[in-house]
Specification:
single chain; 364 residues; alpha/beta; Rossmann fold; 2 domains; seven-stranded parallel β-sheet; 14 helices; 13 strands; 16% strand
């Protein structure tokens, strides 16, 4: 039996966690009979990660990403298991690991948007963290047997940063729509809370997501009969935005912090449009999800968004608040309908899993 390791320590985190949840879900029904999978999860999360079948071995580690424990105890656990191939699903990994491995690099935003505003750390600590990120990511690109990216755009970015000598080992594989979201039932109880028509944002509140500009643009609108709903994790960056909004005295901007699938179904089905003002993305999962529900999309004019949606969305310049506001006004006066009939053919976590299995088989 070939022994394949999978780093699932971020299973319950946003972004990468969706990737891991769906990958492991489909892998359990698609796993080749000649492979055993060693799945590494955080000790505190182990009881909540459901892995079935004799081919799956759950390994508990107490080694969070970006820590010394990752470089020491996680490294030791990997070496002890003597794997034929390891799959690191995030850029943070034990840099001294030299056995065969592949890596999924979801985006390079921390490299191209270097700013302490994206961290709660003091400037010096942030600078040290940033330099560590550069070193670890560079090491991963150099030493991985294969690199998986979620889009051609991220592949092009990596080639531009690290050189064409790595181009052939970088493989774009599209992600998809969560099986949990597709199976979820709409939480219709939210209709009592969100009675007015609303524009929707779904995602994190990190500075590169540019939610501040969306709020500024929304304030410029005629807001008598419309709300803005911002859905994302409750953290430092969300608290700062909540405080900023409170100081304006505006009462039609709402934050919603629960990540329940039924809630997301409600928001996608009932929003006037999804608005994504991001400066930088590696993929754009909320756009794919919105397209699945035929929710109109208004978003930044980014190459990666055009790769996902073509020209089937209303674009704006994310660096110009007035342009965001003008496009929102244009849409509200004359709503546009977009159609995404092939969204499930192009973006599928099941297909992604099949392709990753193909990568495994081509190496071991």
């Amino acid at each position: 039996m070939k022994k394949i390791g999978i780093d699932a320590r971020l299973y319950f985190q946003t972004g990468v966690g969706v990737y891991l949840n769906n990958f492991l879900y489909y892998l359990q029904s698609l796993a080749p009979q000649d492979m055993t999978f060693y799945v590494y999860v955080m000790k505190k999360d182990a009881s909540q990660v459901d892995l079935r079948g004799k081919q799956f071995v759950k390994r508990e580690v107490d080694a969070k990403w970006h820590t010394f424990a990752e470089q020491s105890s996680f490294y030791s656990a990997l070496m002890k298991d003597d794997l034929d191939l390891m799959h690191f699903t995030y850029f943070s990994y034990p840099v001294f690991y030299r056995r065969p491995f592949i890596a999924t690099i979801h985006d390079v935003t921390p490299l191209i948007h270097k700013t302490g505003r994206a961290s709660t750390l003091p400037w010096l600590a942030y600078e040290i963290k940033h330099q560590a990120f550069r070193f670890v990511l560079g090491s991963q690109v150099k030493n991985a047997t294969t690199i998986i990216t979620p889009t051609n755009f991220v592949k092009d970015q990596l080639v531009k940063i690290y050189g064409k000598k790595y181009e052939e080992k970088i493989m774009p594989i599209y992600e998809g729509i969560s099986h949990r979201l597709m199976q979820a039932t709409e939480n219709s109880a939210l209709r009592h809370k969100f009675r007015k028509p609303f524009l929707l944002y779904i995602g994190n509140f990190y500075p590169h997501k540019n939610v501040e500009s969306l709020i500024e643009a929304f304030i410029k609108l005629d807001r008598n009969n419309i709300d803005l709903v911002l859905v994302g994790p409750d953290n430092y960056f969300a608290d700062k935005l909540v405080s900023d909004v409170a100081q304006t005295g505006i009462d039609n901007i709402h934050f919603h912090h629960t990540g329940r699938m039924g809630d997301l179904v409600f928001f996608y089905k009932n929003a006037l449009a999804l608005v994504n003002p991001s400066f930088s993305e590696g993929f754009g999962l909320p756009l794919v999800e919105a397209a699945y529900f035929n929710t109109p999309i208004i978003a930044s004019d980014l190459p990666v968004f055009h790769e996902i949606l073509g020209d089937d969305y209303l674009t704006f310049d994310p660096y110009k608040v007035d342009d965001i506001s003008e496009k929102l006004t244009l849409f509200l006066k004359n709503p546009q309908a977009f159609h995404y009939p092939d969204i499930m053919k192009k973006f599928s976590f099941k297909t992604m899993t099949e392709k990753i299995i193909g990568v495994y088989s081509g190496i071991v």
